[in-house]
Amino acid sequence: MNITVVGAGVVGLTTALTLEERGHTVRVVAAETGDATTSAVAAAFWFPYRAGPPDRVVAWAAETKRWLDPLIADPASGVAARTGYEITTDEGLDPPRPWWAAQIDVSRAPAPVAGAPIAWRYASLAIEPARLLPWLASQLRAPIEHRTVTDLAGEPGDVVVNCTGLAARDLAGDHALLPLFGQVVIAELGEVDRSVSVTDDRDPDALFYLVPRHDELVLGGCALPWPPGTPPVVDTAITARILAQARSFGLPIGPVKRVRAGLRPFRPEVRLERVGRIIHNYGHGGAGYTLSRGCAVSVAELVGPASAGLRP
After folding, report:
1. Is the full-model pTM beyond 0.85?
2. Ordered domains of the chain (ranges, CATH)
């Protein structure tokens, strides 16, 4: 089949690549690419954060991890193994398993921070957008077409796949899709253990995470409601709070390099459905990297076999 994928963030690029692997002819159209996308600002580690529905999310996340794990062997992909620690309000050594761990192994262990709070420990991945996004684009057979799409039905192809993230609010008329403000601090590695990532979810109003990359640290964060149509602006108070949390955890981070802000495309549930010749694949919240391949496989299932679009 001939397919147009609209959007060149991690969801759009992964969807396009997955469809090409299944024999389809794919063109990607996007107004923004690379560092200009929301995906470029993400902390980008494997964890199904702020996405639903739970049963589909855990399956999509597991599928994505199975795809990402072999990419660790290719430095150009920007994917690296990490041991993740999620600090929560769960008490004791044997509380109920978290919902997101339905298809992965987790255990209880002290988090490697000051105070050693008990956390959920699991195998995670750190992903560098500046490497993975161009790597994905390089795997495609055709270059991305840079232009703004205003009418999905007007795009050519047997199928059009809508991977436009927040832009889908207007493009698809979906007002259940809302922006959530996120902000990260990028710092030098310092003396931080590069093999672990840490998330502290105990206070939703003071979310904290640490994600080491190969040459820098990503410190976050927040997930705050934001007025639709308003660009994100760095908040110095949030930066100060993130750095204070890092100090309270005794993390020996290096000097701050830069601060970035972006808007997550949040929806109570990811929209992944087919309406005529249009397939919608958006609303992944803070889990775009975590769900990208799993959702792409679901899109491919909705498209069907490549031969279905051929005419005698």
Report:
1. yes
2. 2-309 (3.50.50.60)
